[in-house]
Amino acid sequence: MEPSVGERLRAIRESRGLSLRSLARLSGLSVNTISLIERGENSPTVSSLHRLAAALDSSITDFFHEDRRASAVFVRRAERMSVTRAGMTMESLGIGLDHQKLEPFVVRVAPEASSGDEVTHPGQEFVLCLSGQCRYTVADQEYDLEPGDSLLFDSTHPHSFRNPGDSEAEILLVFQCSSTTEFARQAHFPGQQVSRE
Known about the structure:
seven-stranded antiparallel β-sheet; 10 strands
């Protein structure tokens, strides 16, 4: 059985020699919030995942897998690793490639649900609306995406997204690192239970 996001967070924190209090100070999250995430009793928001990843000098994808590297990664739909919180489900489409530079996810967003606080991270971000409606805000500019619409932007600009419609939205979300060592480190999704569908 794959470890949960909380278990991976604890393992990464401990490997860095950080206490809960130290990680709280670095991430700006409370000790209690981080403890609940690690125990699987609370699901992280996207913005919390980004803050935790940045504080740990890590990548969001590190919360979803063991440190295994491969030359090719094949993921069956039924075996996608996922995290769910507050009307959003984020499914990983591939983790573990040697020298991986892209972080692809499918995100399902319930009506009126959002990614939470605006975030920034190194690199670029690509979004493709697969179904429903998605409103992205990038540097105070709003973009309304419908099925087939796409958006590519510099993710160092503050950004967030939400579903303004009355039905579930589904988007393809791809983070790109700005170098071989810099992933989209702040997460659009902090601290949730990982599961297989």
